[in-house]
Amino acid sequence: MSRPQCSRCLRPATHCLCPLIPSLESRTRVLLLQHPSEVNHALNTARLAALGLNNAQLVVGEVFDDLATLLNPPGYQARLLFPSDDAQPLQRYAPDEQPMLLVVPDGTWRKARKLLHLNPLLAALPRVTLMGDAVSRYRLRKAPGPGALSTVEAIAQALQVLEAPASFEPLLRPFDALIERQIAAMGAAVFEKNHG
Questions:
Q1: What does the alpha-carbon distance between residue 1 and residue 85 come to, in Å, rounded to a whole number?
Q2: Which pLDDT tens digit goes with each residue over 33-44?
Q3: pTM of the entire structure?
Q4: Which of 13, 132, 177, 187 is 20 to 30 A removed from 77 (C-alpha atoms)?
Q5: Which parts of the sequence belong to the DTW domain (predicted)?
């Protein structure tokens, strides 16, 4: 018998994160393309980001038949948030600059690359990247390298840069709570032994 689940945040009802999820406005539109293997992941930070941003959309799949439509909402310039040699560092919007459709693949690095491989329109988008080597707040995982962030952290940082001085820190509240709950559940001694 399974535990009752919140239909919105998909957490067990006893650990619902909805009271911590903000309702943030952004000039930037965020399109999250989530690999199906991430849907039932314990953290599912793409879902947290989509729930916390009023101008965001989460689409699950490997091949997106309606990708041309998704990538061309009127009034936005589509950019793929994904590292590459030719990726442009994100910068604050100029006053009259057209806002961005920030396309964010969600999955392991391997699965995200697969999404690009299976969707040529996605792979063909101009790429943008975050500057610097931000440190992830995901203290339960070893990052594969400097600047490796969870999906919600990457989105919050990207919006922070693009729309400064607006703050997108509230987007990370449910993520931080989730991490704290997992640490509490494993106990301080186990956390220190494995992640300290």
A1: 49
A2: 999 998 887 778
A3: 0.89
A4: 132
A5: 2-187
